[in-house]
Specification:
Elements (H helix, E strand, L loop, with lengths): L2 E2 L2 E6 L4 E10 H8 L6 E9 L2 E11 L4 H4 L8 H6 L8 H23 L3 E3 L4 E2 L13 E4 L2 E5 L4 H11 L1 E9 L15 E9 L4 H22 L6 H10 L7 E3 H10 L12 H11 L3 E4 L22 E6 L4 E8 L4 H10 L8 H8 L7 E5 L1
Parallel strand pairs: 3-5, 6-10, 12-13
Antiparallel strand pairs: 1-3, 2-3, 4-5, 7-9, 8-9, 10-11, 11-16, 13-14, 14-15, 15-16
Length: 375
Amino acid sequence: MKSAESHSITLWDTTTKLTLPVKYATLSIYELLRGLPCGSQVEITGYWDNYGFYIEKVEVLHRPILEDLACIDELPRDPVEFTRRYYLYVRNPSYAKVVKTYSLVLQFIRSLLVKNEYLELPTVIIGHTSDPGLRGASKAVIKLYGGLYEVQSSVIMYKQLYASVFGRIFYTARNLRIEPPENVKTGRHLVEFTQVDIESAEDREEDLIRLAEIIIYKAIKYILSKHSNLLDNSRISTLDRQVTKPPYPRLTYEEAIQEARRIGYNVKFGEELSFEAEKALAQKYEAPIWILHFPTRARGFYYIEDHKRSGFNVDYNLLLPGGYGEVLDGGCREYRYEKLLDKIKQHREDSSKYSWFLELTRAGLIRPTCGWAVS
């Protein structure tokens, strides 16, 4: 029987595109494979040795009609094109690796939080008014049961409510923020995204910072040790070198402003640091760094004021080097009715939008809590 030798076959699975040399296949099998459109699903029987792939049998399970859609080789550089037609790219190995990494990190963080006695709750999708501090984004509003409700942009106040009941809680929260058009190509603004959102009525600022450091460190080391095949070599090297064992350096907001100005960034006091300034600070230290205690006017009204320093919050952000910037945002929350109402007014927010939460604080149903969100 005639045979076809010294050819190759390209196989795709969810994370790999692999071209294998074919050492032997019958001529009929060779002609069958050569005639298949890209994206065909096949079951191949054979064996491999040091010289190549010996194909004994091929069964065709499915042939695509549109070959150009079944095998898109490159992901688009244009984020608008990717967003509009992402469903065509889910089989691309590069995208599939991202999805799998996301899933593994999420599972690992969940397991660590459960071990630390945090109760996972089903995330809030539609509810009363949520986080107002969206930095230029807006929220989706829907009519329901004769009233207006929001698709949640943050579960911040729901975290406070349920932590007041159960002590330690977390959400795997899906959030929606309608970003302005100019943010489409920044690489850091997502309309729909996931946050692991935790809140505790049993722990204070220092406890939550230490927990965050441990979780970030262990999650990254878990991926590097168990699933490094999902990452590029350059990223493996960067993460391994820069995400060291905690504790991590800490800068107060004022110290961060001074550092940013020294390296050439004009940051105004009372404003949040720009992404470029955050990135530069993290690169300078070549390690994760904390920025602590922002001015009250620079952040959301729900942070509690530091009783030792008037005009500053008890809050904290974690920055990662390697261009990642801020990955975690957190702090301790205001729970007293009069204080909260005053801060809402200071931030020029309509207090009637938060009547549901103010009602809870007025009744003394919200306990002092602290928390954070990592995304």
